[in-house]
Amino acid sequence: MSFQIDAFGTLVIAVIVLFIGRFLVQKITFLKNYNIPEPVVGGLIAALLALLLYKFFGMSATFSAEIQNTFMLMFFTSIGLSASFVKLKEGGSALFIFLLCVAGFVLVQNAVGISLAKLLGLDPLVGLIVGSITLTGGHGTAGAWGEVLETQYGIQGAVVLGMASATFGLIIGGVIGGPVAKFLIKKYQLAGKSIDNQEDETSAHANAAAFEYPRRTRLITSNNAITTLGMFSLCIYVANWMTKMSNGQWFELPTFVWALGSGVILRNILEHVFKVNIFDRAIDVFGNASLSLYLAMALLSLKLWLLADLAGPLVIILLVQTLVLALYTAFVTFHIMGKNYDAAVLAAGHCGFGMGATPTAIANIQAVTNTYGPSHKAFLIIPLCGAFFIDIINAVVIQTIIKLF
């Protein structure tokens, strides 16, 4: 028996999932100590409950994809609207160095997937599916490339395999980021004490980056909220229009990339051409709310029984990929980025989009900084890298490898 949940029902359940996650993180020491994001905790509980209902009672639910997509687009739009060119300069050489770390891992991830696929007697392209297509690319990239590999390269079940692998990655990406950061922080004694989770406006950094203080009280008015909502709506409208216009063209890009790009352009035109004072507090509120709800809905919609369809060799590849990511972020990303506290937080973020998605990366670094203290550099670099540059790097690498095969 399958139930269809509409947009409002999906939103209500997602909020409940978030509250459950928040309650469990506050009450369970392990979850709090290892900085597991609240949406991931609540979402996993919901996904496990859905698995039990499916296995024992044959019941399943389909949640509104439209509202989930809307919150995803709002999240990426908030990154764009927060990207003032003045603030982008703050990333400087650190952003470029981090991009090199990320690009290096995309190559490593695909090398591991393809090598293990060959070793286990599978098509090398299957290793690519259980590589950066799904683990760095996420569900959207998995669906797009899965269809191509099925129709043009004869890889049967590529879409299902991609979705299952991306599901695994989304879960693991949100689980290992906190423990990796905790290991690095404790080993190198990078943070002496925790910070108060209940921050207020006066204790927050005046020039905070997007998503940097998710628990900070922000004073906004209805006029600010309406103006900000109008900006979000315009960016998403343009993104949907550009997606249709670019379909099949050389400049075709996913809708969320157009949303992010529209936000960057709108923000900087208003700020630097028309001298409009952008109200970042409202953008932060919209962005953080969208992030939490999107993550909850994404995990709520996971069909964990798809993972049961993965053959043993594919599970082996995914487990090895998890180990490789943890080692790479701890011993490559962390060291190259300076072996300091910011580097540890960046390592947690890299875990998020290395096997999950940019929202998972943001949630990871929020969980870590809520415990150990702020990292302005991480909140500047992770959104830019994870939401935009990583997709360009990944697309180039995937296309190059497929041409070789």
From TrEMBL:
The chain crosses the membrane at residues 7-25, 40-57, 69-88, 94-113, 125-146, 158-185, 225-243, 249-270, 291-308, 314-336, 343-366, 378-402. It is found in: Cell inner membrane. It is a multi-pass membrane protein. One of its GO terms (molecular function) is glutamate:sodium symporter activity. One of its GO terms (biological process) is L-glutamate transmembrane transport. Pfam families: Glt_symporter. GO terms for cellular component: plasma membrane. Signal peptide: none annotated. Keywords: Amino-acid transport, Cell inner membrane, Cell membrane, Ion transport, Membrane, Sodium, Sodium transport, Symport, Transmembrane, Transmembrane helix, Transport. InterPro entries: GltS. Catalyzes the sodium-dependent transport of glutamate. Belongs to the glutamate:Na(+) symporter (ESS) (TC 2.A.27) family. NCBIfam families: gltS. This is Sodium/glutamate symporter. It comes from Acinetobacter silvestris.
